[in-house]
Amino acid sequence: MVTTRLTEALGIEHPVIQGGMMWVGRAELAAAVSEAGGLGMITALTQPTPDDLVAEIEKARALTDKPVGVNLTILPAIDPPPYDEYRRAIIDAGVTIVETAGANPEPHMDMFTAHGVRVIHKCTSVRHALKAQSVGVTAVSIDGFECAGHPGEDDVPGLVLVPAAADRLTIPFTACGGFADGRGLAAALALGADGITMGSRFMCTQESPVAPTVKERIVAGTERDTNLIFRQLRNTARVAKNAVSDEVVEVLARGGDFADVRELVAGRHGRKVFEDGDLDAGIWTVGLVQGLIHDVPAAGEVVRRTVADAEQILRDRLAMFASPAAV
Where does 13-209+297-318 sit in CATH, by number? Predict the structure, then answer.
C-alpha cells in the first residue's frame, strides 16, 4: 500500500484519482474506481438536472460504500447551468469530496467548508495552485501540458510543472496529464506529488460509458494523434485528431474566429461520438497518454496494477542504491 498525504486527507486507500470527464464520469465507472481503493468522480454537469445528479450519486452508493467524489466544472457561458443548484444537490446528497475546475473555487468554498466538503481544485500552473491553496482547498490537481481538455496557455509539461509545484505548495497535490500506469505513479511520487489523477486511462476501461469504437481508437492511437485547437483564441484544448479537429485547426490558422468553428465544436456533437461511436461526429478529448494505453481492462484492475507496479518499480530502484552488505 502506498500511503501519502493525499490518501490520508481524503480517506482513500490508493493515491489514484479518476478525473472528472464530461459524458464519462458516471456512477458505474466512479464506483468501480472507488471500490478498488482509488477515488472515482461523477461529473455533475453530465447529469441534465441537479435531481438527476442526486440519483446518479445514489446509484454509485449502491455499488460501493467507499468515498465517491463529484466534479463540478464552472465555465463562462451565455446560458450557464444552475451552478448553485448543483452545488446544493452535492451537499444535500452527503458528498464529502468535490473536484472543482474551470474557474476560481473561492465563491464556493464557504458553503463547501461549512458542510465538511473537501475540495480538490484542478490547476494548470503553480500560480493558480497557490491561489487555490490560499482560499482553503484540501488539495490540487496539477495538470501538465500533456493532459486532455484544457492544458492552459503556459505549455509547461508535467516533468517540470510537478516538481515546480512541489517546491511551492504545502497542501497535497496530484499530478495529472500523461499518466496511465505504475511507471507514471512512481515518477509522480519521485517528483514530489502525492498521487496521480488519470482521465484518458479510465475512459478506456470496461465500465466507461463511451462507445467501444472510441476505446478501440484510443488503444490504436499514438502520442501523436491529438490536436491542439483554439490556440489563437487563447483557450487551448487538446482533443483527438479527427476530421473535425483537423478542420478547426485549419480554419483558425487561416484567420478564422470562434464564430467560424462554433458549430463544428458544439458539445452535442462530442456527446454523439461517445454515445454512438461515430469518431468523426465532433471533437472529443483524449490526452497524449493514449500512446501508453494498450488495453481495455476493468477500472478496478487499472487501480490495482498501477499501485502494484509502482511499488515494485520503487523497490527495484531503491535496491540499486542499497549497500552490498544490505543486499
Answer: 3.20.20.70
